[in-house]
Amino acid sequence: MADTAREVMETRFFTLTPQHTLGQAARAFAEASAATGRRVFGMMVVDAQGRLVGMLSLYDILLAIRPKHIHLWGEMQDLELEGLLDRACCQAAALRVGDVMTTDLITVEPDTHLLRVIDLMLKKHVRRLPVVEQGRLLGMVYLSRVFDYLLDRLTAALPEGEGEGVHPA
Amino acid sequence: MLLRVDQKGVLTGVTVREAMRRQVVALLQTATVAQAIRSTIKFKVNALLVEAPDRRALGVVSKTDLMGAYYAGLPLDTPLEAVMVGPPLFCRPEDSLDAALEVMRRQRVHRLYVAEEPPEVAVGVLAYPDIVGVLYRFCHRCRRTLLKKGERGLDLANQVRVREVMTPGVASFPENARLLEVMEGLASQRLAAVLIRSLQGRPVGVVSKTDLILAYLHDLPPDTPVREIMQRPVVAVKQEETLEAALRRMIFADIHRLFVYRDQPEEMVGVLSLSDAARFRSGTCRACLASRIKVGGS
């Protein structure tokens, strides 16, 4: 068994298109979380041919909601803020995914060695890496899956007689 | 004595450090025009710093430059080094805000980048909306002083009307104008947005540089009629409204310009921008003057 991205990648994932609005994306995040049983904080964006064109993360959505002049309000304690969050969400919901997605993505190939995957995740501070073959999105490598995989291998590496583990406090 | 006090502006003693924004939105010189458009939309900024891989600032790409690239028919994957304007203008955190404003006015730029050491690496950015925040802080304190001193002072502070601060005249285009014509108008008149009128002359929408660069990102042909991308309704304010109320309205609606009408919304007479407000308040704010006279006189 080769220790590559293919071994740990999640092949069941949900995607967005650049034409989706952020409102539609929000619904897709909730649906993807429910369907996969894991909290989804980022989704890949693919074009009509299934090519990876970007990623929409929680951070992109928060930025889109944050009003342009928010830094002024610290000064304006007398400002009536009733209804402001709804208004900000309303404006953000109408934006298209393609308008705010991140496009300079770090990707790996299915045959990328797992140690290289770990190196990338550490160096670039990312928790998920898209697995791409000839531009097409094949799967996602999540830090948590890599960690589970490593835990098994680390446990297997324990010398005989040291397998007791820690005792619960 | 009074004269000397009068000349003291609201901003005296305030440094760039107190007003600057520490989040500098920057892209590499090899990033594309499409990435720059997404960044201006996502981070809600009017310009991006273009940096070399060693973080040295090379230039600035503003919405105007991005609109220019659309007008020129450049492909969306054009690298930023081909459209940026450089080198950027810098100030230092310890500079006085007055001096920085003076440089911005003289050089006709809307923002200065802030550097310490090394001198070409941006640690902050100073733009008009940031200065409005500082002004508000000072005026607010000032108003509290006025409150203590009685209602007459507060009345004075509220007497500044939109019509005194606005830029008179409203540039407009008919709703069937092509994006190309609107871009020409915005560029030649150095405007950020124009009013769009129906064929009968009624105000029906607004088109800003942001709308135009989004049209670029969405691959709309530049001969598209402007009605297809305009924002509606027109956010407008009556000219007799107080500056204070108009400022709040802009901040609440997350826009930086209001169209101003005389009596009826059909009768547009000017534009009030956040930077108009900033310029006004930094120089001849009546509220501030009033409070200083009171202090000086007691």
> What is the overall shape of chain A?
globular
**Which runs of chain A of at least 5 residues are low in confidence (pLDDT < 50)?**
none
CATH superfamily of chain A: CBS-domain
Largest interface: A-B, 29 and 29 residues
Q: Using DSSP, what is the number of strands of chain B?
A: 13
Name the helicity range of chain B: 40-55%
Main sheet attributes: strand count, strand direction, barrel closure of chain B: 4 strands, mixed
Total number of strands of chain A:
5
Described by strand count, sense and barrel closure, the largest sheet of chain A is: 3 strands, mixed
Q: Helix- and strand-based class of chain A?
A: alpha+beta
Task: Quickly count the domains of chain A.
Answer: 1
What fold name stands as the CATH topology of the domain at 2-126 in chain B?
Answer: CBS-domain
CATH class of chain A: Alpha Beta
Mean pLDDT of chain B: 83
Strand order of the largest sheet of chain B: 7-13-12-11
The helix/strand series of chain A, from N terminus to C terminus, equals: HEHEEHHHHHEEH
CATH superfamily of the domain at 2-126 in chain B: CBS-domain
- Overall outline of chain B: flat
What's the Cα radius of gyration of chain A? 20 Å
